UniProtKB/TrEMBL annotation:
Its EC number is 6.1.1.17. It comes from Candidatus Providencia siddallii. Belongs to the class-I aminoacyl-tRNA synthetase family. Glutamate--tRNA ligase type 1 subfamily. The gene is gltX. It comes from the Bacteria. It is an enzyme of class 6 (ligase). A motif ('KMSKS' region) lies at residues 238-242. Residues 320-461 form the Aminoacyl-tRNA synthetase class I anticodon-binding domain. It is found in: Cytoplasm. Keywords: Aminoacyl-tRNA synthetase, ATP-binding, Cytoplasm, Ligase, Nucleotide-binding, Protein biosynthesis. Catalyzes the attachment of glutamate to tRNA(Glu) in a two-step reaction: glutamate is first activated by ATP to form Glu-AMP and then transferred to the acceptor end of tRNA(Glu). Residues 4-306 form the Glutamyl/glutaminyl-tRNA synthetase class Ib catalytic domain. This is Glutamate--tRNA ligase. One of its GO terms (molecular function) is tRNA binding.
């Protein structure tokens, strides 16, 4: 069997949204499953709307998600010579022709067709003319689409799809400014790059018969086609319209792990039994096109959160730490002076759904705070001052700073004070963290370290003395 070759061919005219990335993932997985090749092709022929920034965003997103490509990125803008050569050949062979119809004429026939309830399409006026036009006159090049018969292809997801040739226009393949058109470039690229499987969004189904006809006219082999259904948001709206989903990198900035995104995306429209959690290796192992659903599917933000929480706690901690490191650096959080990131993930991972939440809750491990905010002040009073003095002494006596010894020091303090642990817990937590939510006290105190803990209790005592007494 021929070596499988797939491609992801985004147009850099906007941000990459979930639907496009899901297409990229399916295309990538299909090549990986079959030990084939995966190509990245940037379809930048729309010179006005394509930007460098969008191209960089595509590359960054693919890299971040680990969707590596074997060849490319290829840029269509570097291939104009090749496209124009083929257009010349087609004109010579008669599979394409020059069309000199003016805009006004085209508008006129369009109007007439609409009035008589016909589908607006080019009427073939220049198709069989052999007039010697003035070479100065502007023209487009149209593909000579067969008039009779039909185009049938067996879509790997939708099954047999048939279009009648009489429904198809003589497509413009080169515009009057000399630039080849999108549908034409795609055909030449897929041919030259020997793509065996075109996996792309469902919105391209209507392009496929046109592209097949051009390939046939060129005697080029036909690839297989798989058109993946659209992705909707929870409310059934098309995803690309929504702000937070138009930019996949927004999820990185919101503290999601690539693994969680990929797991959610792979399950949007593809299944393997009832399995919900897939490692990348499992995705590669199980992915086939026949298990993709025909119907569209919905992106579910809560499910993504659930998966992210799962992966924060179940991926190798070193891997999560790499992402967390990037995240904390970006937030200017200096994490060198405190618990190691691996320790931090063990401390906070089970209570956080995103890296953002970890970043927001980890400050007290690394940085002293100068003030108590209003919501916690009520826990700092004369009674708690008495408790804090006792616990400070107990903690100070610890020589071997272990979680067990810290717990023992807390218990000893409650015995000395003849109170239960509930009374001492909150003031102590506020004194050392400044907030009233943290992992359990013993591990928190352990991670903060002895000198810092004592220093902070002293600071709380001074605060009470200066503000309460
Ligand atoms: N460039 C097209 C897009 O971004 C994809 C074309 C294709 O996959 O054939 O929608």
């Amino acid at each position: 069997m021929k070596n499988i070759k797939t491609r992801f061919a985004p147009s850099p005219t906007g941000l990459l949204h979930i639907g496009s990335i899901r297409t990229a993932l399916y295309s990538w997985l299909f090549s990986r499953h079959n030990q084939g090749e995966f190509i990245l092709r940037i379809e930048d022929t729309d010179l006005e709307r394509s930007t460098e920034k969008n191209i960089q965003m595509i590359i960054d997103t693919m890299n971040w998600l680990g969707l590596n490509w074997d060849k490319g990125p290829f840029y269509q803008t570097t291939r104009f010579e090749r496209y124009n050569d083929i257009i010349k050949q087609m004109l010579k062979a008669g599979t394409a022709y020059r069309c000199y119809c003016s805009k006004r004429r085209l508008e006129e026939i369009r109007k007439q067709q609409i009035l008589s309830n016909k589908k607006p399409r080019y009427d073939g006026y220049c198709r069989d003319k052999t007039i010697n036009y003035n070479l100065e006159e502007s023209f487009v090049v149209r593909f000579r689409n067969p008039k009779k018969g039909s185009v049938v292809f067996n879509d790997k997801i939708h099954g047999m799809i048939k279009f009648l040739n009489q429904e198809l226009d003589d497509l413009i393949i080169c515009r009057s400014d000399g630039f080849p058109t999108y549908n034409f470039c795609v055909v030449i690229d897929d041919w030259d790059m020997e793509i065996t499987h075109v996996i792309r969004g469902e919105e391209h189904i209507n392009n496929t018969p046109r592209q097949i006809n051009i390939l046939k006219a060129l005697n080029a082999p036909l690839p297989e086609y798989a058109h993946v259904p659209l992705v909707f948001d929870d409310g059934g709206k098309k995803l690309s319209k929504r702000y937070n989903s138009t930019n996949i990198m927004q999820y990185r900035d919101d503290g999601f792990l690539p693994q969680a995104i990929l797991n959610h995306l792979v399950r949007l429209g593809w299944s393997h039994g009832n399995q919900e959690i897939f490692s990348i290796d499992e995705m590669k192992k199980y992915f086939t096109l026949d298990c993709i659903n025909k119907s569209s599917c919905s992106f579910n933000f809560n499910k993504l959160l659930w998966l992210n929480h799962f992966y924060i706690n179940n991926l190798p901690t070193e891997e999560v730490a790499t992402h967390l490191k990037w995240y904390l650096q970006r937030q200017n959080i200096d994490f060198n002076n405190g618990p190691k990131l691996i320790e931090l993930i063990h401390l906070l991972g089970h209570r956080c759904k995103t890296l953002k939440e970890i970043a927001e809750s980890c400050h007290y491990f690394y940085k002293d705070f100068d003030e108590f905010n209003d919501s916690v002040k009520k826990y700092l009073n004369n009674t708690s001052s008495e408790y804090l003095k006792v616990i400070k002494d107990e903690l100070n006596m610890i020589n071997d700073w272990t979680v067990k010894n810290i717990m023992e020091a807390i218990t000893n303090s409650t015995i000395k004070l003849k109170i239960n642990i509930g009374k001492i817990g909150m003031p102590l937590r506020i004194a050392i963290t400044g907030v009233y939510k943290s992992p359990s006290l013993d591990v928190t105190i352990y991670a903060i370290g002895k000198s810092r803990t004592i220093f902070r209790i002293e600071k709380a005592l001074t605060y009470i003395k200066e503000n309460i007494e």
